[in-house]
Amino acid sequence: MEDRITEALYLELGNVDAAEFERTRAPQLLARPGVARVSWWATTVPGRDELPMAVPEGTLLAVAEVDDAFVAPPATPGTTARHFRRYPRPSQGILTGCPTKGLLVVWISPKDEADAQRLRDWGDFVHIRHIAAAGLPGFTQITPYENTAAGAPRYMHLYELDAEDPEAAYQAMAGIMAERFGGTGSPEFREWASWKRAGAEIIYVNTFAFLGARSAADGPARA
């Protein structure tokens, strides 16, 4: 990712060997129209269970940075694939000049379609806004995306991290925000933390550590 402004992202999540992905699937994705770069990331906590998960977990996340010429291919068997376009609101956060070493991926949907805008406004103006304002260690940019297709998840919040340990940075978030708001019992913290009160349901959450990347400019991969 590395602090890029990307029109859209195509993600595949599955139990895929990283070396095999680099050898086979990455070149397949790069060969498609509209794909500028493909990166792959290791799931830091396979089997995470402290939050509801509505899609199967995987050990590897692939992220293709794409434009409007891209058409999603058939997903590799056993993977969960989603195509997202940037929501028309800006990213929030700070550019540190350091490369993106980790991701926090949040897939979220309104429980009722009538709550979609309320959820989006909570995400942008309450939840993400305060994370960006707090300057959490390890966190750089946070970008909202929207699914190009109907169904869950409706939205993706993509957090880019320059932390060596993205999971540790994520785990520190709640404590730092609680301190900022005057404790977990404060109305401000409850408003920031309560995705249920915003009419949302969690579809998927996890952190990922960078493994590798190839861009279309790199040319064909070596055998």
Key features?
single chain, 223 residues, alpha+beta, Alpha-Beta Plaits, eight-stranded antiparallel barrel, 4 helices, 9 strands, 25% helix, 33% strand, globular
Which SSEs are present, and which pair or pack?
Blueprint lengths: L7 E7 L3 H13 L4 E9 L16 E7 L13 E7 L5 E2 L8 E9 L5 H19 L4 E9 L7 E7 L4 H16 L5 H7 L6 E16 L8
Antiparallel strand pairs: 1-3, 1-4, 2-3, 2-9, 4-7, 5-7, 6-8, 6-9, 7-8
Molecular structure report:
Strands 1-3-2-9-6-8-7-4 form an eight-stranded antiparallel β-barrel. It has a single domain, classed as Alpha-Beta Plaits. The chain contains four helices and nine strands; from the N terminus they run βαβββββαββααβ. It has helices at 18-30, 116-134, 166-181, 187-193; strands at residues 8-14, 35-43, 60-66, 80-86, 92-93, 102-110, 139-147, 155-161, 200-215. The two termini are 25 Å apart.
Per CATH, what is the topology?
Alpha-Beta Plaits
Query: Oligomerization state of this entry?
Result: single chain
The CATH class is identified as: Alpha Beta
Distance between the termini: 25 Å
Shape: globular
Low-confidence stretches: none
One letter per element, helices H and strands E, the order comes to EHEEEEEHEEHHE
**Helix fraction?**
10-25%
- From the helix content, strand content and strand pairing, which structural class follows? alpha+beta
Task: Indicate the proportion of strand residues.
Answer: 25-35%
Largest sheet: 8 strands, antiparallel, barrel
Mean pLDDT: 93
Radius of gyration: 17 Å
Strand order in the largest sheet: 1-3-2-9-6-8-7-4
CATH architectural type: 2-Layer Sandwich
Count of the domains:
1
The count of DSSP E runs of length 2 or more, i.e. the number of strands, is 9
Number of distinct helices: 4
